[in-house]
Specification:
Blueprint: E1 21-22, E2 36-41, H1 45-48, E3 58-62, H2 68-84, E4 85-86, E5 91-98, E6 107-111, E7 113-115, E8 128-129, H3 130-137, E9 148-153, E10 158-159, E11 171-172, H4 173-184, E12 192-193, E13 199-200, E14 214-215, H5 233-238, E15 245-246, H6 249-255, E16 296-300, H7 305-314, E17 317-318, H8 320-329, E18 335-336, E19 343-347, E20 357-362, E21 367-372, E22 378-382, E23 389-396, E24 401-408
Parallel strand pairs: 2-16, 3-5, 5-9, 10-11
Antiparallel strand pairs: 1-7, 4-17, 6-9, 7-8, 12-13, 14-15, 18-19, 19-22, 20-21, 20-23, 23-24
Helix pairs in contact: 2-4, 6-7
């Protein structure tokens, strides 16, 4: 779901004690992928059975145009984030409902303000979105103003249900809201192009916390001005020609290496760098929520352990009640041989059970094969009839999801 951040209002010369600074910026379109597929990544049981203890409260302020049936889905998405994130200060969200004159355009969102040099910040020269600032300081930073602003396209073909049973021709509002709130709490970069040959990042030259973890394939940080002067051609190459990654320590542990970010050859402001790579984290995979697109019929009702690890690196505290559950999600499948000419064998994880379903997706996120666990120990997947290439094997348990890339020769 190509989401979108709101441009940056240039501010006066930075001081050591900064006041909240408005985040305004350009509107970046968020389009639905032009495909339909039935994929449901359910929330954890603590969400479904209502037994979880919220670590934070999201207060949604709906404009008069938001229909009542939509409010249920919007609220449900906010409650999911509230179960994961810990903050003593309520996260205030303004939700608007507008005709964007294009039913492919889904929504736009971002923080309303950013702040730096506050008590508890890891570096006084790094900006933080206001909701994260409030979580770290334990204090309200902007009075009664919203922390996040979301604009939802009123003409998109929405599914308002919260059960994940999204019809093949509709867009799941819970998923899109969960995604947009992710941007509002910090999943966003400040990168932009200033010409056809140069790019830059930052607010008055200083990065937002997300920027500080962006790196190249050698682990060199985007904010290393020796390698990547700001602005420079090197920066433009990093976020277009090359592949950029997110290198936070918790993130690397969760993904078994730095995850690739969305860096198309033509820079897309508000979308490039501010999402996970679409091809690496396709539909049905655990961390598909924060990729730039969503299909009709696709429902993603969980952030994914990798996404949570990224937020943790940025400074969010993740509720201990759900952290242990998501540690299970970060497990990988042991597959051999891999590559294979047809038949793959994987070790059935300890937490998987008989009857648990596995799915195989191609790089476009389309389901191409499926099956069930028939026995403990080892299970076989036969892809003999499929074309050579890369696929993703996803195994879903009751409270667990495993995912691994496989290559058919």
């Amino acid at each position: 779901m190509r989401s979108f951040l709101i441009p940056l209002l240039l501010i006066p010369q930075l001081s050591l004690i900064a006041q909240p600074t408005e985040w305004v910026g350009p509107t970046i379109t968020c389009f639905a992928r032009d495909t339909s597929q039935t994929v449901f990544l359910p929330p954890i049981d603590l969400v479904l059975n209502g037994m979880g203890t919220p670590g934070s409260t999201f207060e949604l302020d709906f404009t008069s145009d938001v229909p009542l049936e939509a409010q249920q889905a919007l609220t449900f998405a906010a409650e999911i984030w509230g179960l994961y994130l810990v903050s003593s200060v309520p996260v205030r969200v303004e939700v608007d409902w507008q005709d964007r004159m294009d039913n492919r355009l889904l929504a736009s969102a971002g923080p309303t303000t950013v702040q730096r040099a506050f008590a508890g910040s890891a570096n006084p020269f790094i900006w933080y979105p206001v909701a994260l600032t409030e979580a770290i300081t334990g204090q309200n930073q902007n009075g009664n103003a919203p922390d996040i602003r979301i604009i939802v396209n009123s003409t998109a073909n929405w599914y308002f249900g919260i059960d994940g049973q999204t019809p093949f021709n509709q867009i799941d509002l819970v998923s899109v809201t969960l995604h947009e709130l992710g941007h509002g709490i910090g999943f966003l970069a400040t990168t932009d192009t200033i010409s056809t040959t140069q790019a830059e990042y930052g607010i008055q030259g200083l990065p937002i916390i997300y920027d500080s973890f962006v790196e190249d394939n050698n682990g060199v940080a985007m904010t290393n001005e020796t390698a990547y002067p700001n602005p420079s051609t090197n920066l433009l190459d990093l976020i277009t020609v090359e592949e950029a990654f997110f290198g936070g320590p918790n993130t690397v542990l969760a993904f078994n290496g730095p995850p690739p970010l969305f860096t198309p050859g033509l820079f897309d402001i508000g979308s490039s760098v501010s999402h996970l790579c679409e091809f690496e984290f396709s539909s049905g995979s655990e961390n598909a929520l924060m990729t730039p697109q969503i299909s009709r019929g696709e429902a993603i009702h969980d952030p994914g352990s990798g996404t949570l690890a990224m937020l943790q690196d940025m400074g969010w505290t993740i509720s201990s009640e759900v952290l242990s559950i998501n540690e299970i999600f970060s497990s990988t499948l042991h597959i051999h041989p891999n590559p294979s000419s047809g038949v793959f064998t994987f070790e059935v994880p300890e937490h998987a059970g008989l009857g648990d379903r596995y799915l195989v997706y191609n790089l476009s996120g389309q389901e191409v094969s499926s099956g069930q666990i028939h026995r403990s120990g080892l299970e076989s997947v036969d892809l003999t009839d499929l074309s050579a290439g890369s696929y993703f094997l996803v195994l879903r348990g009751e409270n667990s999801i495993w995912r691994e890339k496989i290559v058919k020769e």
